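Backbone shapes recur. Consider a single case.
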Amino acid sequence: MGSDFDHESAIAIAELLAPDRLDIAASVRAAPTGDDASAVLSERLQDAELLTYFDWASRPADCREWMQDLRSYPSAMSWDWWQDFLEEVDGLDPGETNERFLERAGDACLSAGTALITIDSGSDGGDFGFTPASNVQRVVAIPNLHVVKTGWQDSKSGHSADIREWARQNAHKVTEPSS
């Protein structure tokens, strides 16, 4: 993962995404450095099927399948945009295709009361997972963790303010998915 990854961020991410798995947070806490904590976090959350990794060269169909395999996948998420998306990105380079895929998937998640999140590792790929949209305020308070939605790549420096504003305007619409 990226250099100088914040150790406390890794612990906070583990506690947020796996609150019922205290062993994951303990493993992250025991890592000697932030970068080690980041690697342990990624490995343990992937093993728990709470995160999936893909990079900018991954095919959107594979990314979709990997996301759907996660334990935290929101069953209420709609893919009614999928066919239009495939036509829209036909002929685009993989990086642009995946950026558009993530934005559309992130928007669909938020509409379903779930946030698509990514851990910023400083690489050409990332770990992706889900958390209830009611956690958005907690997500934006954690360095290295981002909510994925339209415009998220363009506004990383202002990302927290953008997402906080979204949460403020939409908090009344967010419902927790039923289990």
Observations:
- The radius of gyration is 16 Å.
- The first helix runs from residue 7 to 17.
- Residues 154-158, 174-179 have pLDDT under 50 and may be disordered.
- Residues 53-170 form one domain.
